[in-house]
From TrEMBL:
Record-stated family: Belongs to the gluconeogenesis factor family.
Subcellular location, record wording: Cytoplasm
NCBIfam families in UniProt: CofD_related
Protein name: Gluconeogenesis factor
Domain of life: Bacteria
InterPro entries on file: CofD, CofD-like_dom_sf, Gluconeogen_factor
Keywords for this protein: Cytoplasm
Reported function: Required for morphogenesis under gluconeogenic growth conditions.
Organism: Marinicrinis lubricantis
Phylogenetic classification of the source organism: Bacteria, Bacillati, Bacillota, Bacilli, Bacillales
Pfam families given in the database record: CofD
Keyword Cytoplasm included in the entry's annotation: yes
Length: 326
């Protein structure tokens, strides 16, 4: 096991993933005394991100945009403006302003990573935001019937059960900065997020899974609260972890954070109408496999169920402090 090189007063934390769940968590985590590096998927091929990816020959900016805004130290109106999505306009409809700015910064600097760094500097981002690779990757899935579904946006729509996912090109080059951040991390966090389309694609980028596996950092997995139709139907918490294990060949995590209760029946019914259900916490199986399980009421509901960023970040920070004190 490689020893973490950081044992200073401010723990170094690497978060890996994509999607809305990661951004929600980071809104709470950025207020802790932590040195944060976010490594974000570049497999998105739908919507505004997909259009810019195709027309500008750049990695998809959507997940990166969400993470930058989550970590930014800006007025709420600025964050809202960057998330603004045009509803009309020839060529503009469907695009978010933040995506267009990232595309402009990439074009101006000639490099996606440099564009991210410049925008992060302008927005006073607390931490670093890095793509898993400096080029777009294309996600494909082999289904249990042997068929292949192409495209991150199409995989959940296939109506079939996923056997495994893989990326093209397979030999995409990871960012040296991302690998170094993993080597120096005191804690590595994955989730919440889509297990097959937001989390695992990062681990399929060559060397990233190897570095995470060899790291002696505390490794935390935050499980989704609800199943995702077409992706994790009927999944228990242990099934999410097994999906990661099946792709990288070993159990990766030390601690699993799960939601316990707190979802009103009427909210569960609303999600059931969309084919989603509460992820069952199979505690006995998790403990049998050697995971430390942290359970708490971690969600609230507005239009959608979301993790409580403050409570979640409190748990994460406590776990890191305990780990550092050993």
């Amino acid at each position: 096991m490689r020893k973490s090189s950081s044992r200073g007063p401010v723990p170094k934390v690497v978060v890996i993933g994509g999607g809305t769940g990661l951004s929600v968590m980071l809104r709470g985590l950025k207020h802790k005394a932590l040195d944060i590096t976010a490594i974000v998927t570049v497999a998105d091929d739908g919507g505004s991100s997909g259009i810019l990816r195709s027309e500008m020959q750049m990695p998809p900016p959507g997940d990166i945009r969400n993470v930058i805004i989550a970590l930014a130290d800006v007025e709420p109106v600025m964050a809202k403006m960057l998330q603004y999505r045009f509803e009309t306009g020839n060529g503009l409809a469907g695009h978010s302003l933040g995506n267009l700015i990232l595309a402009a910064m990439t074009d101006m600097t000639g490099d996606f990573v440099t564009g991210i760094k410049e925008l992060s500097r302008v927005l006073a981002v607390r931490g670093r935001v890095l793509p898993a690779a400096n080029q777009a990757i294309f996600l494909k899935a082999e289904m249990t019937d042997g068929s292949i579904v192409e495209g991150e946006s199409q995989i959940p729509l296939s109506g079939k059960k996923i056997k495994k996912v893989f990326i093209e090109p397979e030999d995409v080059t990871p960012l040296d900065e991302a690998l170094q951040a993993i080597r120096e991390a005191d804690a590595i966090i994955m989730g919440p997020g889509s297990i097959y389309t937001s989390i695992i694609p990062n681990l399929l980028v060559p060397q990233i899974a190897k570095e995470v596996t060899e790291s002696s950092a505390l490794k935390i997995f935050i499980c989704n609260v609800m199943t995702q139709p077409g992706e994790t139907d009927e999944f228990k918490v242990s099934d999410h972890l097994k999906a990661v294990t099946d792709h990288i060949g070993c159990n990766l995590f030390d601690v699993v954070i799960v939601n316990q209760g707190g979802i009103p029946p009427e909210v569960q019914q609303k999600y059931a109408e969309q084919g989603a259900e509460t992820v069952e916490v199979d505690l006995d199986e998790l403990e049998r496999q050697g995971y430390q399980v942290v359970m708490d009421e971690l969600v609230f509901f507005k239009r959608y169920l979301r993790h409580d960023a403050v409570k979640l970040s409190d748990h994460i920070y406590r776990l890191i402090e305990q780990f550092k004190s050993k």
